[in-house]
Amino acid sequence: MLENFSFRTIAEYLPLFGHGFLATLWLSVVSFAGALAVGIVLCAMNLQRSRLSKVPAKIYIDAIRATPLLAQLYFLYFGLPRLGIVLPELVVGILALSLNSGAYIAEIIRAGILSIARGQVEAGIASGMTYMQRMRLVVLPQAFRVTIPPLLGQAIVLVKDSALLSLISVSELTRAGQLLASDRFMPAEGFITTAACYLILYYGLKGLAALSGRWLGSQPMRSRT
Amino acid sequence: MIWQQFQGLIGSYPLALRGLGMTVALSLISLVLGTLIGFALGIVRTGSNQLISRVIGAWVDLIRGTPFLVQIFLIFFILPELGIELDAFTAGIIALSNLAACFICEIVAAGIRAVPNGQVEAALASGLSRRQRIQQVVLPQAMRMSLPPLVGQYVLLIKDSSVVSAIGLTDLTRVGWLVVQRVPNGLLVFAIVGVGYFIVCYPLILLARKLERRMGTAHGEVQL
């Protein structure tokens, strides 16, 4: 039973969890920045008329969405050394998260851009704007409003997905829980503390999403969380 | 060298089949359980009892706010401490069904809330009982809206089933992990694992897209 749930042990391991919390936080931020870059490039490729740039982007996005992140992570972790590229686990993990989330972000941005009413673009054309001007002055500012809430939703998914990095022994939040569970045979203490730390991140991001929804005057977050 | 690797891969095909079978079994069982429980929870969540609705909402939030890997560890390691003995397969089913039920609950609840109020009022005016209102008026319309995100959720479920390999179940991902210890070619091995998932998931993704287009729901509702 759980009657001997040991808060003292948790207190003892608190520095480890603090370290794991910060590690999860910053590796998520770095991965999200990477994912944004990947997503913007993919989306730009996907919106071109030329098949030469469109088809590879579509194939990449579908391949990522139809396979689990864990398989992608192992693909890089066991596969990169084969190509002579030996990277630390942490870098492999960030790479996998960025490449994975990038595909989803590409679709979010695309949906945002396509949600702009056709008349807006036509008005831009009628005003004699170039393609770049239309994008910069008409489409993107409006698309920005629509994409912020689902982007924050994707950020929540990314933070949770980062737990998988513990399986390639990156020292982050879940790893801290595993250490406490295996060192002291206290899985309850370890994983409940881990879960609580993730909930802090989750509610933080969720609050941010609600806040941004109010600022931008759009609907509250409705994305996969 | 490559030839040897191919031989090694071909030699491990019974293992691969077992892994695929495990992935399919896990996904199918928890898909059925999760859908049933999710629908029940979704209907209760939109019902008139505020307290139960709140409790379900809080539980869904807890599940949505924590990584699936942590949930599996919690179930697998803590339920035995509470005196409930369970093997890895049962733990995997419980974790996956619970996850699916929570997401499907929200999908169904959103579908029910999207049914215009006038529909319920008309049913009330026609003297339909609560059961009839839900069965004949609300759910059929809510289903229309819930179907595309529901199929999308199934894709997520199949992909999430890969995480149960962490508690030692020999599913498709775990097989890849085992094979790569003998055949040191991670690119090839996990490309094949990926193809296995792709064959199962891609048709579902296409189906979800088709449904979404046909139902004419707004895009961006659920990202597959």
Automatic annotation (TrEMBL), chain A:
<feature type="transmembrane region" description="Helical">
    <location>
        <begin position="59"/>
        <end position="79"/>
    </location>
</feature>
<feature type="domain" description="ABC transmembrane type-1">
    <location>
        <begin position="21"/>
        <end position="210"/>
    </location>
</feature>
<dbReference type="GO" id="GO:0043190">
    <property type="term" value="C:ATP-binding cassette (ABC) transporter complex"/>
</dbReference>
<dbReference type="InterPro" id="IPR043429">
    <property type="entry name" value="ArtM/GltK/GlnP/TcyL/YhdX-like"/>
</dbReference>
<feature type="transmembrane region" description="Helical">
    <location>
        <begin position="20"/>
        <end position="47"/>
    </location>
</feature>
<dbReference type="GO" id="GO:0006865">
    <property type="term" value="P:amino acid transport"/>
</dbReference>
<keyword id="KW-0813">Transport</keyword>
<keyword id="KW-0812">Transmembrane</keyword>
<keyword id="KW-1133">Transmembrane helix</keyword>
<dbReference type="InterPro" id="IPR035906">
    <property type="entry name" value="MetI-like_sf"/>
</dbReference>
<protein>
    <submittedName>
        <fullName>Amino acid ABC transporter permease</fullName>
    </submittedName>
</protein>
<comment type="similarity">
    <text>Belongs to the binding-protein-dependent transport system permease family. HisMQ subfamily.</text>
</comment>
<keyword id="KW-1003">Cell membrane</keyword>
<comment type="function">
    <text>Part of the binding-protein-dependent transport system for glutamine; probably responsible for the translocation of the substrate across the membrane.</text>
</comment>
<feature type="transmembrane region" description="Helical">
    <location>
        <begin position="185"/>
        <end position="205"/>
    </location>
</feature>
<dbReference type="GO" id="GO:0022857">
    <property type="term" value="F:transmembrane transporter activity"/>
</dbReference>
<keyword id="KW-0029">Amino-acid transport</keyword>
<keyword id="KW-0472">Membrane</keyword>
<dbReference type="Pfam" id="PF00528">
    <property type="entry name" value="BPD_transp_1"/>
</dbReference>
<dbReference type="InterPro" id="IPR000515">
    <property type="entry name" value="MetI-like"/>
</dbReference>
<dbReference type="InterPro" id="IPR010065">
    <property type="entry name" value="AA_ABC_transptr_permease_3TM"/>
</dbReference>
<feature type="transmembrane region" description="Helical">
    <location>
        <begin position="85"/>
        <end position="106"/>
    </location>
</feature>
Automatic annotation (TrEMBL), chain B:
<dbReference type="Pfam" id="PF00528">
    <property type="entry name" value="BPD_transp_1"/>
</dbReference>
<protein>
    <submittedName>
        <fullName>Amino acid ABC transporter permease</fullName>
    </submittedName>
</protein>
<feature type="transmembrane region" description="Helical">
    <location>
        <begin position="187"/>
        <end position="208"/>
    </location>
</feature>
<dbReference type="GO" id="GO:0022857">
    <property type="term" value="F:transmembrane transporter activity"/>
</dbReference>
<feature type="transmembrane region" description="Helical">
    <location>
        <begin position="91"/>
        <end position="116"/>
    </location>
</feature>
<feature type="transmembrane region" description="Helical">
    <location>
        <begin position="20"/>
        <end position="44"/>
    </location>
</feature>
<feature type="transmembrane region" description="Helical">
    <location>
        <begin position="56"/>
        <end position="79"/>
    </location>
</feature>
<keyword id="KW-0813">Transport</keyword>
<comment type="similarity">
    <text>Belongs to the binding-protein-dependent transport system permease family. HisMQ subfamily.</text>
</comment>
<keyword id="KW-0472">Membrane</keyword>
<dbReference type="GO" id="GO:0006865">
    <property type="term" value="P:amino acid transport"/>
</dbReference>
<dbReference type="InterPro" id="IPR000515">
    <property type="entry name" value="MetI-like"/>
</dbReference>
<dbReference type="InterPro" id="IPR035906">
    <property type="entry name" value="MetI-like_sf"/>
</dbReference>
<dbReference type="InterPro" id="IPR010065">
    <property type="entry name" value="AA_ABC_transptr_permease_3TM"/>
</dbReference>
<keyword id="KW-1133">Transmembrane helix</keyword>
<dbReference type="InterPro" id="IPR043429">
    <property type="entry name" value="ArtM/GltK/GlnP/TcyL/YhdX-like"/>
</dbReference>
<dbReference type="GO" id="GO:0043190">
    <property type="term" value="C:ATP-binding cassette (ABC) transporter complex"/>
</dbReference>
<feature type="domain" description="ABC transmembrane type-1">
    <location>
        <begin position="20"/>
        <end position="208"/>
    </location>
</feature>
<keyword id="KW-1003">Cell membrane</keyword>
<keyword id="KW-0812">Transmembrane</keyword>
